[in-house]
Structure formats: C-alpha cells, structure tokens
C-alpha cells in the first residue's frame, strides 16, 4: 500500500460516525536486525490540522495575517490521531477503525 492511497480517505468509527479526513501520516523509526532502521506507519492524522502545520502555523513558528493562526489553532483542537493498530479495513476512499471518535487522542499536544 502507498501512503498516497491513505491521504484523503474518510475515516469512520465503530458506530459508523465520520471521524475525519486523513490529512497526514505519523511514522516511527523501528530498529531492524543488523543495526539498520525502517519507517513504520504509527497513526493517521484526521482533521484540518495537517495543512496548517505544513505551512508552519502549528508550532507557533509562523506569524501571519490575523485570521490564519486562530483558524489553524481551531482546526488543531478538532483533529485526532488514529493509531494504525485501530484500523480494521481500508477500502479506498473509506477507512474503518475499531474505536469511537471520543476515545481517540488529539493529533497534536497543546503547548503550555
């Protein structure tokens, strides 16, 4: 499976409720035998946060016209990370997961 096949898919929970659209993917480096490392898909990021982060607004690194930082912060609050282990079926353009939306963690931690 290619990562491009996951971006843009609609994610649905066990109750059939729409969780969001996949906007980004989270990977982890896993050690391999022989000392090498390989990337492994860890989570799907669903919601409107992906675009703002790619523009630099997600980590307060970018300042810009007034509405953009507020808009991207609002979208970030609604975005969730779906662990890859929760995915039960991928039938493009639909992805089903084995948990409810309210059980998922926020995609990004808020800075304090």
H/I helix tally? 2
What is the CATH superfamily classification?
PRC-barrel domain
Which range best describes the helical content: under 10%, 10-25%, 25-40%, 40-55%, 55-70% or over 70%?
10-25%
CATH topology title? SH3 type barrels
Give the tally of structural domains: 1
Count of individual beta strands: 7
- Alpha-carbon distance between the two ends: 38 Å
> Unreliable runs, pLDDT <50, ≥5 residues?
none
Numbering strands along the chain, what is their spatial order in the largest sheet? 5-6-1-2-3-4-7
Strand content: 35-45%
Question: Nearest-angstrom radius of gyration?
Answer: 15 Å
**Average of pLDDT:** 83
Structural class by secondary-structure content: alpha+beta
Global shape = globular
Order of helices and strands: EEEHHEEEE
If classified by CATH, what would the architecture be? Answer: Roll
**Could you name the CATH class?**
Mainly Beta
The largest pleated sheet is described as: 7 strands, mixed
Report on this structure.
Helix 1 crosses helix 2. The mean pLDDT is 83. The protein has a single domain, classed as SH3 type barrels. The chain starts with 9 loop residues before the first strand and ends in a 6-residue tail after the last strand. Helices cover 17% and strands 38% of the residues. The longest helix is centred in the middle third of the chain and has 12 residues. A seven-stranded mixed sheet has the order 5-6-1-2-3-4-7. The protein is globular, with a radius of gyration of 15 Å. The chain is α+β, with helices and mostly antiparallel strands and 112 residues long.
């Amino acid at each position: 499976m290619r990562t491009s096949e996951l971006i843009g898919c609609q994610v649905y929970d066990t109750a059939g409720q729409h969780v969001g659209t996949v906007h980004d993917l989270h990977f982890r480096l896993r050690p391999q035998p022989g000392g090498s490392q390989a990337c492994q898909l860890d989570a799907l990021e669903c919601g409107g946060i992906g675009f703002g982060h790619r523009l630099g607004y997600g980590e307060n690194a970018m300042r810009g016209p007034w509405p953009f930082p507020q808009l991207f912060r609002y979208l970030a609050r609604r975005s969730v990370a779906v662990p890859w282990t929760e995915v039960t079926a991928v039938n493009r353009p639909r992805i089903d997961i084995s948990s409810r939306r309210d059980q998922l963690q926020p995609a990004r931690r808020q800075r304090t």
